[in-house]
UniProtKB/TrEMBL annotation:
Subunit structure, interactors included: Homodimer.
Protein's recorded name: UDP-glucose 4-epimerase
All copies of domain NAD-dependent epimerase/dehydratase, residue ranges: 5-254
Gene3D superfamilies: NAD(P)-binding Rossmann-like Domain, UDP-galactose 4-epimerase, domain 1
Keyword Amino-acid biosynthesis among record annotations: no
Domain of life: Bacteria
Pfam families: Epimerase
Keyword tags: Carbohydrate metabolism, Isomerase, NAD
Enzyme class (EC, first level): isomerase
UniProt pathway annotation: Carbohydrate metabolism; galactose metabolism
EC number, UniProt record: 5.1.3.2
Organism: Notoacmeibacter ruber
The family this protein is said to belong to: Belongs to the NAD(P)-dependent epimerase/dehydratase family.
Amino acid sequence: MTKRVLVTGGAGYIGSHAAHALVDRGDEVVIIDRLSTGFDWLVPAAADLVVADIGDTERVASLLQDGGFDAIMHFAGSIVVPESVADPLSYYENNTVKSRGLIECAVRAGVPHFVFSSTAAVYGSVGSEPVAEDTPLRPESPYGSSKLMTEIMLADAARAHDLTYGVLRYFNVAGADPAGRTGQSTKGATHLIKVAVEAAVGKREGIEIFGEDYQTADGTCVRDYIHVTDLVAAHLLALDRLRDGGDSLTANLGYGHGFSVKEVLQTVDDVAGPIRKTMGPRRPGDAASIVADASKARRELNWQPQHDDLTGIVEDALRWERHLQTRNEATTN
Ligand code: UDP
């Protein structure tokens, strides 16, 4: 069978990295993306881009029918936790309902493999210990619930039909393609490293630290930041496992150790020069510490991360941010 992959959300941050990685190793790639938060210039030249909503099931069905696809990598979705609290039904629509339609199209067209972009938000509040996959699933936001529902649908569909899947639960994804081809370009991003590098290039005045009274070593929250290139590498390994006839799998993706907000911002200062910081109140819903136990991905996928280095993550994110700035200046002049 041809190694031909439909990448949903392939014009977005993580999806575009996956599209590049697949093209790099010789898979055929078709991207479906409605370009609501993604950009066509992040898509590899060798991939076909279909500008459409994955909720357009007629379009998806006709793409998949006789399209020769052996896999779907599903990245399209909404990802802002507070937004999901304010507007839950649009999250269930975008993340759950549309995924249901996509899975049904896959089953009907006989696409045998499905790799799904999930999240550590399916676990909800966790203690300070690394979180393994058998931790009880108690999402605390509509975002986490909307993703968990898709995990459940996939598992049930796989039991009933000729389908195997990889579910990958992301911790804090950051950084950019070391080759400089793509990176986090979403407008109004809220993630720590993205916000910090935006401050470093002067796109923002500074950064607010959301709380320093947590039960952690320096009082700020601890997260497991994983380089997007390592994250994407695990997706390709998961796909290979399925293509080789391996069983479906659900695995965490993180490095198994964390950094505090202050440590991250110190690294940004070291790499880019000091940025302005202000101390603010806690952000509602933030847990003190969230770190992955990602031993399963290493064990089952033979995943060997190459970019477990916070300085390198920040350098790549900063290089991309500077690129975006130059690009912006070029297009606005
Ligand atoms: N954070 C912060 N200032 C910001 C953005 C984030 O202090 O401008 C903190 C946030 O409170 C959390 C950590 O950085 O403790 C990581 O937040 P992010 O939104 O990047 O990821 P999350 O862990 O919420 O998915």
